[in-house]
Design brief:
heterodimer; A: alpha/beta; Transcription Regulator spoIIAA; 4 helices; 18% strand; B: alpha+beta; 5-stranded antiparallel β-sheet; 5 strands; globular
Chain lengths: 119, 135
């Protein structure tokens, strides 16, 4: 099942479901990179509230999405990483060092508003 | 708890990776593992299952509840008949990868579990055995 992507103003909001396969992660990448141009999006929120775990493939996919969409002129912020997911990610060695993160959707929107100068 | 027979999940495609890690999480939760422990186990399964699809193409993950020295543990055995790992010591180092990954799979899975061993023979295949005390 494809990750649903909603438009809210100049932002795209992708809501990842509990279990994301590798194929779905790659499709999310392609969809977001395309939609940034299609809808002239300035920001992207990837909401991981429902995601039950993050492995190295998913992390690499999200990092790639962040880099690609930045090259297309949109900032991406990951929100909703659950405590146990964060714990396992750190043990695994995933740092997400160059990806913006925020606590939840509300904080993510605030972050993007500040980044894009829309206050 | 009574020992259950291993639950076997054939691994041939990326959807099987999701199935294997969900079965692992379900068993961990039934055994009484915490939510953090269950997530760690499921994440480790995801990494070694992907090692199978990336390097061997197909294989199997067997998940079972075991008792060792009177303590309960969840045991995951991943096996394939792929090319094998030529240099296990290097494969266990962070950042070393012969595939397209981050090179975190094996060492990362090892950090998530309490016991981790890799048996591999060039041209014969690879078996990863990992356990986590649970609860």
């Amino acid at each position: 099942m494809a990750v649903p992507i909603l438009r809210q103003g100049a932002y795209l909001i992708a809501t990842v479901q509990s279990a994301m396969t590798d194929t779905e992660a790659l499709r999310l990448r392609d969809d977001l990179v395309r939609q940034v141009g299609l809808y002239r999006a300035r920001g992207i929120i990837v909401d991981l509230t429902a995601l039950d775990l993050m492995d190295s493939f998913a992390a690499r996919s999200l990092r790639t999405i962040a880099h690609m969409t930045r090259l297309r002129g949109a900032d991406m912020v990951v929100v909703g990483v659950q405590p146990e997911v964060a714990f396992a990610m750190v043990q695994l060695g995933l740092t997400f060092e160059d990806v913006y993160t925020a606590l939840d959707l509300e904080e993510g929107l605030r972050f993007l508003d500040a980044r894009t100068g829309k206050d | 708890m009574a020992r259950e027979g291993p639950l076997r999940v054939p691994i041939t495609a990326d959807v099987d990776i999701v199935t294997a890690r969900q079965e692992g999480r379900d068993l961990a939760e039934r055994m009484g593992c915490s939510s953090i422990e269950s997530t760690m186990i499921a994440t480790a399964i995801s990494e070694i299952a992907r090692n199978i699809t990336s390097h061997a193409g197909r294989g199997e993950i067997a998940i079972s509840a075991v008792a060792i020295d009177g303590r309960n543990a969840i045991e995951v055995v991943a096996s394939d008949k792929g090319p094998g790992i030529a240099d296990i010591e290097r494969a266990m180092q962070d950042g070393y990868s012969t595939g397209a990954g981050l090179g975190l799979g094996l060492p990362g899975a090892g950090r998530l579990m309490d016991h981790f061993e890799v048996r591999s023979e060039s041209g014969v295949g690879t078996t990863v055995i990992m356990r986590k005390w649970c609860p």
